[in-house]
Design brief:
CATH architecture: 3 Solenoid
Number of strands: 26
Strand order of the largest sheet: 1-4-7-10-13-16-19-22
Largest sheet: 8 strands, parallel
CATH topology: UDP N-Acetylglucosamine Acyltransferase, domain 1
Radius of gyration: 18 Å
CATH superfamily: Hexapeptide repeat proteins
Distance between the termini: 42 Å
Order of helices and strands: EEEEEEEEEEEEEEEEEEEEEEEEEE
Shape: globular
Length: 206
């Protein structure tokens, strides 16, 4: 189902059933519209609310939910059953894997977010002032976040850093660092990582 307040670029494919341009509570179609660039692939059971601006070559997995007021760049993938709540800002060439949750998060270009990563938005839930408190996390370009990590509000994950699977990130992560654990702590730099199979000289390099 595509509402009348939706603009979709050429070459895009909507796989039924999906809902594009659903009105947020209390809004009418003259107040908000959804813009999606060319060559998008929207897979079944995806819901995209009105009030989003999405770039070219966008893809969703089945059952993705994207609320209002998100700005999403080009070549972004949002995986199966992932939830983007409101006010996320996502750059270009970003992969958000299956089962993730984001709200008020800023993600720069070329970031990888592994399966089931949760970005929290409230340090003391439930707080009626959470939007004005710490705000969402910021993930700098080329960062990678492993599966099942939890990122607390207001945290900055530095450029070209790596958050290990299952980590709970409670404070800022320095650029070019590897952090693991609960709470996550730096264990080495990206330069110290090696490809243990020997396929590449280094697993990550800019």
């Amino acid at each position: 189902m595509k509402y009348s307040n939706v603009i979709i670029g050429r070459g895009s494919k909507l796989e039924d059933p999906c809902i594009i341009g659903k009105l947020p509570r209390g809004k009418n179609k003259s107040q908000v519209k959804t813009i999606i660039g060319k060559n998008a692939t929207i897979r079944p059971f995806t819901t995209i609310y009105a009030g989003n601006k999405i770039g070219d070559n966008f893809q969703t997995g089945q059952g993705a939910s994207i609320r209002e007021n998100n700005v999403i760049g080009n070549n972004v993938s949002v995986g199966t059953n992932s939830v983007l709540e409101f006010d996320n800002k996502i750059g270009n060439n970003v992969r958000i894997h299956t089962g993730c949750f984001l709200e008020m998060v800023t993600i720069e270009d070329n970031v990888f977010v592994g399966p089931n990563v949760v970005f929290t938005d409230d340090p003391h839930p439930p707080c009626p002032k959470y939007k004005k408190c710490l705000g969402g996390a910021v993930v700098k370009k080329f960062a990678r976040i492993g599966a099942n990590a939890t990122i607390l509000p207001g945290v900055i994950i530095g450029e070209n850093s790596l958050v290990g699977a299952g980590s709970v990130v409670t404070k800022d992560v320095p650029a070019n660092s590897v952090v693991v654990g609960n709470p996550a702590k730096k264990i080495k730099s990206i330069k110290q990582l090696n490809c243990f199979k020997g396929f590449f000289r280094k697993p990550y390099f800019l």
